[in-house]
């Protein structure tokens, strides 16, 4: 019996050693990828490649790629290679190469390379992640939803939510309560998105415990396992993810969002409800296959022959509008107010502009008034430089490509990451990059920098389709608060700010507490 057990143990050890040896051989072979192509790369190690800091939670994704950028810049390189596990990633450093990838030679880099499987993960089939012709066709249809005319259409909703924000802050100010502005503005943008995307009054400012707010937070707040899944998704080839039927959307979030969209759509169509919101525009795509200026729905017997959205495709677009719209805008406002607390002269200058412009518009915040607030635009742009909501951009090489001015050939399928956080903190383009200075974005200073050195929304054909909406709701919130309150930093806020390592977006680990003093 002992001999049998001993033999079995020996066999298991032998198998394990063989597997480990095979993995080591595979890794060593994989790590020769960039050397064979003549590209300088950072020395990787088994098993994490160059991304051990991500697993140790030393960096978040943006900080990790910013570190790669810094190391290549210190070597005066235009680009370089890294490995995430055994998978090679190409890192452009020169803005000229980035411009070619994002715009000039876009046809070689059409896809982002994010996992999409609409069959088992229906909410993954949204514009941000879709590929090829499906992305191209949907982008063309959805572009009409974000014109200046459509923004004006939704402005009434934003304005109403801004009044609720003012009321909330005013009550806290009367009680001399410190406000967690990160949480407050997340509720504010959730109220806007719930109304503009779903036609629902979520009232998160008054009731932070609503289901809508809960699932909004769930979208971005990850458990350790969910964070690991994000890493696996990012570093694993698409065919393997499809093979194991990988799912990116949290099941409880998917169930809630699909049910909410289906119930809302069903109610609107049965009762012929019309609202000036994003869902109405998507319903036109569902029923007509296109967006028109006709403010009535076609009934089921008169649908256009054009290809229309399915209910799941519609739900996916509503989901990404919600996910991308509430968190990015709220963090942009949060970081702006934080910086204005540290730079009171800039805060005073912004307030003076707000009051001067509003005096020409009957002292009422309107779409037209916000468009005239150029210094506010500069301040938001500077916030987006220092704290880009999406701190890196990725593309997949969809057609073999020779990098201009180099000897590098990129094979089809190669993953490309543009380190936006690193780029926008490069002292060559932004001297003293840790300093907050809205004047960097005066017309004169903008024109003095190379193009493609500021890309918080991306660039080229895949630039963020909702950037106008995001900027508009940020301006509404900032104008409302700065017109009426002096904002100062509370002692409850821990400085320097610590960034969250468990999310793809730029956000703080803890709240940012501010004090608001009512003016006049």
From TrEMBL:
<keyword id="KW-0560">Oxidoreductase</keyword>
<keyword id="KW-0479">Metal-binding</keyword>
<dbReference type="GO" id="GO:0020037">
    <property type="term" value="F:heme binding"/>
</dbReference>
<feature type="transmembrane region" description="Helical">
    <location>
        <begin position="12"/>
        <end position="29"/>
    </location>
</feature>
<dbReference type="InterPro" id="IPR001128">
    <property type="entry name" value="Cyt_P450"/>
</dbReference>
<dbReference type="GO" id="GO:0004497">
    <property type="term" value="F:monooxygenase activity"/>
</dbReference>
<dbReference type="GO" id="GO:0016705">
    <property type="term" value="F:oxidoreductase activity, acting on paired donors, with incorporation or reduction of molecular oxygen"/>
</dbReference>
<dbReference type="Pfam" id="PF00067">
    <property type="entry name" value="p450"/>
</dbReference>
<feature type="binding site" description="axial binding residue">
    <location>
        <position position="464"/>
    </location>
    <ligand>
        <name>heme</name>
    </ligand>
</feature>
<keyword id="KW-0472">Membrane</keyword>
<dbReference type="InterPro" id="IPR017972">
    <property type="entry name" value="Cyt_P450_CS"/>
</dbReference>
<dbReference type="InterPro" id="IPR002401">
    <property type="entry name" value="Cyt_P450_E_grp-I"/>
</dbReference>
<keyword id="KW-0503">Monooxygenase</keyword>
<dbReference type="InterPro" id="IPR050476">
    <property type="entry name" value="Insect_CytP450_Detox"/>
</dbReference>
<keyword id="KW-0812">Transmembrane</keyword>
<comment type="similarity">
    <text>Belongs to the cytochrome P450 family.</text>
</comment>
<keyword id="KW-0492">Microsome</keyword>
<keyword id="KW-0408">Iron</keyword>
<dbReference type="GO" id="GO:0005506">
    <property type="term" value="F:iron ion binding"/>
</dbReference>
<keyword id="KW-0349">Heme</keyword>
<protein>
    <submittedName>
        <fullName>Cytochrome P450 6BQ2</fullName>
    </submittedName>
</protein>
<keyword id="KW-1133">Transmembrane helix</keyword>
<dbReference type="GO" id="GO:0005789">
    <property type="term" value="C:endoplasmic reticulum membrane"/>
</dbReference>
<keyword id="KW-0256">Endoplasmic reticulum</keyword>
<dbReference type="InterPro" id="IPR036396">
    <property type="entry name" value="Cyt_P450_sf"/>
</dbReference>
């Amino acid at each position: 019996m002992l001999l049998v057990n001993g033999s079995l143990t020996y066999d298991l050890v032998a198998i394990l050693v063989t597997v480990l040896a095979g993995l080591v051989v595979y890794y060593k072979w994989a790590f020769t990828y960039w050397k064979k192509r003549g590209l300088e790369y950072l020395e990787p190690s088994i098993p994490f490649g160059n991304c051990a800091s991500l697993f140790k939670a030393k960096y978040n994704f943006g900080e990790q790629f910013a570190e790669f950028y810094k190391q290549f810049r210190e070597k005066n390189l235009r680009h370089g290679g890294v490995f995430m596990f055994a998978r090679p990633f190409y890192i452009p450093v020169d803005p000229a190469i980035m411009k070619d990838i994002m715009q000039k030679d876009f046809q070689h880099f059409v896809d982002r390379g994010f996992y999409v499987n609409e069959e088992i993960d229906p909410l993954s089939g949204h514009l941000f992640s879709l590929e090829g012709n499906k992305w191209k066709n949907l982008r063309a249809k959805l572009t009409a939803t974000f014109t200046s005319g459509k923004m004006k259409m939704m402005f009434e909703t934003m304005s109403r939510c801004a009044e609720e924000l003012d009321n909330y802050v005013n009550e806290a100010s009367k009680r001399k309560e410190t406000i967690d502005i990160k949480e407050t503005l997340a509720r504010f943008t959730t109220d806007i998105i719930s109304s503009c995307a779903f036609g629902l009054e979520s009232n998160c400012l008054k009731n932070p415990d609503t289901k809508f707010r809960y699932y909004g937070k769930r979208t971005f707040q990850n458990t350790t396992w969910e964070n690991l899944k994000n890493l696996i998704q990012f570093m694993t080839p698409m065919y393997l993810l499809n093979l194991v039927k990988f799912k990116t959307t949290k099941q409880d979030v998917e169930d809630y969002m699909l049910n909410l969209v289906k119930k809302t759509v069903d109610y609107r169509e049965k009762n012929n409800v019309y609202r000036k919101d994003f869902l109405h525009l998507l319903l036109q795509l569902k029923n007509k296959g296109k967006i028109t200026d006709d403010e009535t729905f076609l009934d089921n017997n008169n649908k256009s022959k054009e290809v229309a959205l399915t209910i799941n495709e519609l739900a996916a677009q509503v989901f990404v509008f919600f996910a991308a719209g509430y968190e990015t805008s709220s963090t942009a406002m949060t970081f702006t107010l934080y910086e204005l607390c540290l730079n009171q002269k800039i805060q005073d200058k912004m307030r003076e502009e707000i009051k001067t412009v509003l005096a020409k518009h009957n002292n009422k915040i309107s779409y037209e008034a916000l468009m005239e607030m150029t210094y506010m635009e500069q301040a938001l742009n500077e916030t987006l430089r220092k704290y880009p909501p999406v701190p890196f951009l990725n593309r997949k090489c969809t057609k073999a490509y020779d990098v201009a001015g180099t000897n590098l050939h990129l094979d089809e399928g190669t993953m490309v990451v543009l380190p936006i956080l690193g780029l926008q903190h490069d002292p060559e383009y932004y001297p003293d990059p840790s300093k907050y200075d809205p004047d960097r974005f005066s017309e004169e200073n903008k024109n003095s920098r190379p193009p493609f050195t500021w890309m918080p929304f991306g660039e080229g054909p895949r630039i963020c389709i909702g950037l106008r909406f995001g900027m508009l709701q940020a301006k509404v919130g900032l104008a409302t608060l700065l017109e009426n309150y002096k904002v100062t930093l509370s002692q409850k806020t821990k400085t320097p700010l610590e960034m969250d390592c468990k999310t793809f977006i730029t956000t703080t680990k803890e709240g940012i507490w501010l004090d608001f003093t009512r003016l006049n």
